[in-house]
Amino acid sequence: MYTDVYESIETKNLEYTEKEKSIISQYSKDNPLHVLCDPTRYPYSYNENGEMKGIIPDYFRKIADYAGISYEFLTPATRDEYIAYQKNKETTDISIDARLETDNYAETKKWGVTAPFITMQLARVTRRDFDGKINVVTTVDQTVSNSIEDAMAPGAEKLMCSTRQEMMEAVRKGKADAAFVYYYMAQAFVNSDTTGTMTYTLLEQPTFTYRMVISSTKNHALAGILTKAMYAMPQNLVEDLAAQYTTYKATELTFVDWIRLHPVVTVLVLLIFGWLLTAMAVTMVHLSARKKAQKAAQEKAEEMAELAEHAQAANKAKTAFLSHMSHDMRTPMNAIIGFTSIAMKNNPSDEVKNCLEKIDESSEYLLSLINDVLDLTHIESGKLKYDPVPADVKNITDSALDIIKGFLTNRDINFKIQREDAKIPNVLADPARLRDVLVNILSNAVKFTPDGGTITFEARCQEKGGDGYINMRYRISDTGIGMSEEFTKEIFEEFAQEDSDVRTQYHGVGLGMAIVKKYVDMMGGTISVQSKKHEGTTFTVDIPLEITDKECNKSDTGFSEKVNLTGVNALLAEDNELNAEIATVQLEEFGMNVERAVDGKNAVEIFRNHPKGTFDVILMDVMMPEMNGYEATKAIRAMNDRPDGKNIPIIAMTANSFPEDVQASLDAGMNAHLSKPIVIDEVIKTILRYVL
């Protein structure tokens, strides 16, 4: 039945769907999955001091941990308590040791069923002096057990026992000739027998398969989730788990038992090998120790290689997922922000303008959240590098303060700035990262400081003993809501928020300060925080910066909306109707003529079918049907009959925003890469750079 509902192992599609992830998230520490198994089947499952142990519970822990499901084992002490739990649908969510005769039986009970995860074979347990005749066979008071004894030992007298452990003990004491139990039970008992009088024989038939059964009151999709986790486990997992309980243990035979069981071997050992025992023991100890050490080292190396391979695969999957999610989220964001901007320029009424401003504010917040998640991922994966360039720290600080002054519009907050007048030398810095650190801390100060409060910004340049470095110290204080001393130890952790209502009241998910800490660490600096509840917070940031004689990159002098691009002809390759409409309207506002291609193939055809000089610039989306932007760019650059194809500016305008996406655009032959949602000022500046 499970193969009709869930994917089989041949498909190897082990990734969880969004719906399955939602189901998994329902089972937390506060709402765990209640798990049941038989406490009387050592070593398969048993209760030891109130804890469920054994091969089956250990196997379930592996797959539940893999799936990310929180769980809690029910702990029946007897078979009767186990059966009572089985009948109680309100208490038991899943039974992990179900042996079903047919799948139809599970359907009639409205159970969800996983794939089989263990096949149990029977073993016959006897004494070593067993003569092959079974006059008395042990059994327990269970229908299945009685039917097995009837089939394996027809006509034999049955000795009734309470547990299977008692069954095998009765055979050891000579009260019965044989016991029929599951293979690992037999192996565990015989290997732990200290008398050395017991043995077992593995039987090919019958065999029994066990599955996990989901209660009729629970979502049966759990069966599919657990089945996927089973398929992800190593093929020999059950054998590895069983080895922990059934490993052979040296027996402690008495001299009389040894002589009785092995008289010939005893005589030979005493007469021939006795004098070699000491030498052999010493040699074997050394060889065994060396072999174990070599084996342990080899296993450790193999384990580390496997872990590294899994980590690399997980990293690739994570990057691919975020790349697709970034594209899919930025595309509609481009439409929302673009149309809002267009609507704002059409003299809306005060009521409509108010709504548009709220839409714009919410859009900017959502875009900021997307960027935070992507930035954090880049840092963790090591793809975001610290790339310092000659820079003027004063200009970087000024740009951060200008941004914050915009945040203070319509707020009654006293903003104090304390800066040294001394000239700060040019340094090697990453302007974007340093500005992000300052803006993030200052924006939090604005967010968490009520009207009437005060924010103080201090910047000091400190010499570092003539070693070619300076230390820039920034101290940002506010009289806002503050935080507890305990939370100041957690503030730089991802998704950290002190109060449950902070996210709702102040809008945020707790990524900003985590990113700030990682940026500061990347730049070789330090950051500290002091805060008291209801009194305010102070952040101190120290960044070491190397002094340089090189000229700084000149900052952008700003952009004028009065730029006139009349007569500039653009070919816009964009498959999304909304994005195409937004870009066309915004470009035409600057006097440009825009012709649209619906995909990469159409863009190549339009360019080829128009004479040289028709288009001054090509604006190219990347992810398009028929032919993507990379392929279209390469096709245009490779036109032998159109030499202008090698030189016409081609600018990527795409929702793909990862650094590797930027590099892919440049590698395909594009001149520049702009990420959606598009900022029309940036688009016009880029066009001006290549066209005029």
UniProtKB/TrEMBL annotation:
One of its GO terms (molecular function) is ATP binding. Keywords: ATP-binding, Coiled coil, Kinase, Membrane, Nucleotide-binding, Phosphoprotein, Transferase, Transmembrane, Transmembrane helix, Two-component regulatory system. The keyword tRNA-binding does not apply. Residues 290-317 form a coiled coil. It holds the Pfam family SBP_bac_3. Residues 569-691 form the Response regulatory domain. This is Stage 0 sporulation protein A homolog. The chain crosses the membrane at residues 264-285. Residues 324-547 form the Histidine kinase domain. Its EC number is 2.7.13.3. InterPro entries: CheY-like_superfamily, HATPase_C_sf, HATPase_dom, His_kinase_dom, HisK_dim/P_dom, HisK_dim/P_sf, Sig_transdc_His_kin-like_C, Sig_transdc_resp-reg_receiver. It catalyses: ATP + protein L-histidine = ADP + protein N-phospho-L-histidine. It comes from Faecalibacterium longum. The modification 4-aspartylphosphate is found at residue 621. The lineage of its organism: Bacteria, Bacillati, Bacillota, Clostridia, Eubacteriales. SUPFAM superfamilies: ATPase domain of HSP90 chaperone/DNA topoisomerase II/histidine kinase, CheY-like, Homodimeric domain of signal transducing histidine kinase, Periplasmic binding protein-like II. May play the central regulatory role in sporulation. It may be an element of the effector pathway responsible for the activation of sporulation genes in response to nutritional stress. Spo0A may act in concert with spo0H (a sigma factor) to control the expression of some genes that are critical to the sporulation process. It is an enzyme of class 2 (transferase).
